[in-house]
Amino acid sequence: MNQEPITTLKGIGEKTAGLFRRLGIETVEELLHDYPRAYDACEPPVPIGQLKEGQMQAVSGQLLKTASVRRFKNIQVIVTTVRDLTGSLQLTWYNMPYLRTTLQMGKILVFRGKVVRKNNRLTMEQPEIFTPEAYQEIMHSMQPIYGQTRGLGNKAITKAVLQALEQRQMEREYMPADVRRKYELAEYNYAIEHIHFPSDQQELLFARKRLVFDEFFFFLMAVRRLKEKRRDKRSTFVMKQVPELERLLQELPYSLTAAQRKVLKEVQGDLTGGLVMNRLIQGDVGSGKTIIAVFALLQAAFCGYQGALMVPTEVLARQHFESIRELLAQHGIDRNVVLVTGSMTAKEKRIAYEKIAGHEADIIVGTHALIQEKVHYDKLALVITDEQHRFGVGQREALGNKGEEPHILVMSATPIPRTLAIILYGDLDISVIDEMPANRLPIKNCVVDPGYRDRAYQFITREVLAGRQAYVICPMVEESEMIEAENVLDYTKMLRQKLPESICVEYLHGKMKGREKNQIMERFAAGEIQVLVSTTVVEVGVNVPNATVMMIENAERFGLAQLHQLRGRVGRGKYQSYCIMVNGSDQDGTQERLDILNRSNDGFYIASEDLKLRGPGDIFGLRQSGDMEFRLADVFTDANLLKKVSEEVNRLLDQDPELEAEEHLLLKSRLEKYLSKSYDKLNL
Questions:
Q1: Which residues have CB under 8 Å from 615's CB, separation 6+?
Q2: How far apart are CA 78 and CA 101, in angstroms?
Q3: How far is the C-alpha of 678 from the C-alpha of 368, rounded, in Å?
Q4: Per-residue model confidence as pLDDT tens digits over 651-678
């Protein structure tokens, strides 16, 4: 049942299935693993006199009159008033005339909705209606809030999940009993049910712990598998030192930092050392990892081999392709660079494949299209993946399998503390670039409340008129009936009205088609778009040295490490850059968290502070770090559990490397399923 299409659920036809597809959900199993992004706890009703503007609240009272229906243009507005001992409150609904029969004078009901100020008085728009008994039943329970898309609201998703849970095929427990006892883990089926519908926070944390444990467990199992395959492997591609590279180093218009020189030496030591290189370069955004990648690719090319650079977006691939070609042309280096991306025409791809197979290409730059079956390399000696967390362990393995065990170099700008990096990248040696180039101006930061917005828009206007560009980040793609946060689509409309007409404002989000996203990013990179309103999809986007302002709405909803990544999109050129973080929350501790970013531009310091500040409570409403391939697990919030899982994986595999013991057979089959899913993502 779990593998069946979502249309097997009652009430989901082709049209609704299409909307679910926009959320990446096609099967019942995918629906069950589409975990809530937040929870809505139904609190007891508040006296009307104590209502707070801008909050979701419930009130209980008596209707002063039967609801009236007014017409306003083409909209039917239903209005009534509820009263308790502390005051009265106007209630409004749109296009729901049938409510008149429910909303009769004298009735005592509970209304729950967002409290807003209209014409200088508090009102509640579109509140849900409950009898006091019905509200009592759901009070204190935690209602799931899912990621939504236009046309598919939270209620419809919740209903589908409930049905899927009722009809699902129960999974056999695969986690060994001693492991479950040792770490106090919930049974798997229980965890799946209660991550969606927990009765309280304790139950939610219990369910979540099991699912996070599993995510870390299988990921680290896969990493260990890679490590075993690669340990101390002799390399087919032993390279020599190349004098031309020394000359290029002297001719560069800037000097490498001491940290860059140290890491370059480590990489070159691996390439000439006789064993297969498996190395991670960790360096903050803008620390200069790319030039080290280029030197490694050139070393392979000068030694008669091919090198491939795989990046997460087509725009970034194109940018790297152009900048490497330009560098080679400027310094008279006779080596060929070829680009491979998914959106190229069939003819362009064919020509590129022929050049690669015939070794007319020395350096190949592209997206994950580089690991498709049709690409055949000739002496592929080096594979570099940029922004590792966009590529799973499966991708890393598939690319490694493309040649005769090529050298692997992985670059990441995610500033994970070293102790965690050693666990997560267990199959890789780690190099750190912990120094910024001297010519970089530090970004100026400020944390403001929503009242500062108009001044921020004026500032953005001044920067754009001076020839610069700006990003505005929103946490959501479109409006949600449940989550209070700025969304890209409405924000773009509003900004087009607020900013002068001469300023081109466009939007970008992850649900757009690949081609659309590429066009927007290319237009922004070319300076045709001055202000880009986006979700975090720009995190690994593109290098735009001309962008000087990063404004982040609802900054409190993001992890610090992710805010730092976003901020790294500016400050890449010669101009002073600014990051404006809008704190939309009045919760204790939020300002303290954001002030860490205000004080420091050092990603490693920020990551370790993030680790100290986060606790289990932060899983509610806080945007997860989004790294690696985890749905629920967060390397910061769950750092302690990650360490325990790592110890457990090592213990288990040391005892039973092939998982052949009877009590591990179900676990082995589950691991194979996990690994095959990693490969499925590659379209191989």
A1: 637
A2: 12
A3: 13
A4: 999 999 999 999 999 999 999 888 777 5
